[in-house]
Design a protein that fits this description.
By secondary structure, the protein is of the alpha+beta class. The chain contains five helices and 15 strands. Strands 5, 6, 7, 8, 11, 12, 13, 14 and 15 form a nine-stranded mixed beta sheet that branches. It comes from hydrothermal vent metagenome.
Length: 251
């Protein structure tokens, strides 16, 4: 289903465990079941899927109070509702917290999505974060070197103080991990809880002049840049090493 562009690998597994996937009329009950969309009849929620069709790559400025998903069981607004005029079924590349805003990619390219969100890919994500209080140089150093969280120490990051704002401050944080609520937990750990969070860049793709709720189609150069990052990550894993912490799309 990932290759067909119907869902990311993680989302596809959820669809299977929920009993929503059928192959040749029979429900799929085991993860890892193989099927060929060119030969087999694959249905999700009663809809026939195909491996054919153009790939679509979208940059959305995700507003707050939206879920980074295709559907939400609680009926909350989801990011795909903001993408008007796109006929293909698309899904978000990874997640951005409900109360966070900023760069979010959406596509129907499941293979690229899986590569970009794989933990070993180490794709750089840049956040502009408003925190309570004023972090000092030691706090910034701790963020950069790594802090200990419940699920382990964070990888080295880039951190810098941007400016003070009354009783709060703005910092910029670049991380290469995809743990849940990572930025919030890192800031909480140094004693400066997050008041607002905005992702300004993902895998070299910047928010630019987009406003909350606006989107645009990625340029050919940007898509090629993302695919180049994917290939770099694959080669690095094959060598047993790590890919670069940050890559930029061609301009």
């Amino acid at each position: 289903m990932a290759r067909a562009g119907i869902a990311s690998r993680r989302s596809a597994e959820e669809l299977i465990t929920e009993g929503r996937v059928f192959v040749n009329g029979s429900p799929v009950t085991e993860l890892g079941t193989r099927a060929d969309a060119a030969v087999d009849k694959i249905e999700v929620d009663g809809n026939l899927i195909s491996s054919k069709g153009p790939r679509v790559y979208i940059l959305l400025y995700k507003p707050t109070a939206t879920i980074s998903a295709v559907t939400d069981p609680e009926g909350r607004a989801v990011v795909v509702d903001l993408i008007k005029g796109v006929k293909q079924r698309i899904f978000p590349v990874g997640r951005l917290d409900y109360d966070a805003e900023g760069v979010l990619l959406l596509t129907n390219d499941g293979e690229l999505t899986n590569r970009l969100i794989h933990p070993r890919s180490r794709i750089a994500k840049v956040y502009l974060v408003k925190v309570k209080g004023k972090p000092d140089q030691n706090d910034i150093r701790r963020l950069a070197e790594g802090v200990y969280l419940d699920d382990g120490r964070t990888l080295p990051a880039r951190a810098r103080f941007v400016k003070a704002a009354f009783e709060n401050s703005w910092i910029e944080l670049t991380v290469t991990e995809g743990r849940n609520h990572l930025v919030k937990r890192m800031c909480q750990k140094i004693g400066h809880p997050v008041a607002k969070i905005r992702r300004t860049e993902f895998a070299g793709i910047k928010v630019g002049s987009l406003k909350p709720g606006e989107f645009r189609v990625l340029t050919k150069a940007e898509v090629e840049g993302l695919k180049a990052l994917k290939e770099t990550a694959i080669k690095a894993r094959a060598r047993g090493g790590r890919p670069p912490a940050k890559g930029r799309s061609k301009k």
